[in-house]
Amino acid sequence: MSAISERRERDRAHRHQLIITAARELAETEGWEAVTTRRLAERVEYSQPVLYSHFNGKEAIVSAVALDGFSELAAHLRRARQAAPDLGEALRAVCRAYLGFATERPALYQAMFILPTDLKFASAETPPPLRAGFDEFVSCFDPDNDRRELFAEVLWSALHGIAVLSESGRIPPDGQEERLDFLITRIAGAPTKPATP
Fold first, then answer.
1. How far apart are the first and last CA of the chain?
2. Pair 113, 106: CB distance under 8 Å
3. Cβ contacts of residue 93 below 8 Å, gap of 6+?
4. Do 81 and 94 form a contact (C-beta atoms < 8 A)?
5. Where are the alpha helices (DSSP H) in 84-117?
6. Contact at 8 Å (CB) between 61 and 20?
7. Which of 110, 124, 147, 178 could make a disulfide contact with 114, Cβ separation 3.0–4.6 Å?
């Protein structure tokens, strides 16, 4: 590849990331309904046709933001799991980290789990960042447990429900630790440990 081609490729990758970052920032400050190609074009100072040369509409932009979010989530969960002294505490730490991520980044969480995207879950086409996040839950269960992926899937589903219901105000935020205790002890079968905020 020539130096000119390499520079063009770098410029294109930079523009691509700039659009993703602008969409995320706009969604975080004004909500996803504010994310339009016109608004993004103004923010990144490129024309709408340039945006369309990178993304085929809003769903593709949301998918790109979501994919970035899954990379962040996987790293966030990994740090929480690795900082824990044992599997039981790792599970609690990962669950807390997940709920914290959803609370601290509501627009990003919406892109990842609520808004329409073309990302494939639980298939051969699942992007590695999605699988990496799921694997952090799986790693919290005993490797000898041949149903640990099922446990992780049910746990993740329950956490997602807690996150969405908390965000919408349908369940009160002050019961979070009790919900986590119930989830970890009853569903995941991990031993009860005193809750620490």
1. 53
2. no
3. 80, 81, 83, 84
4. yes
5. 87-104, 106-113
6. yes
7. 110
DSSP annotation of 91 reads H
d(CA 34, CA 70): 22
Computed on alpha carbons and rounded to an integer, the radius of gyration of the chain in Å comes to 19
> Is the overall model pTM greater than 0.85, yes or no?
yes
Question: To 5 degrees, how large is the angle CA 100–CA 137–CA 28?
Answer: 30
Neighbours of 101 (CB within 10 A): 20
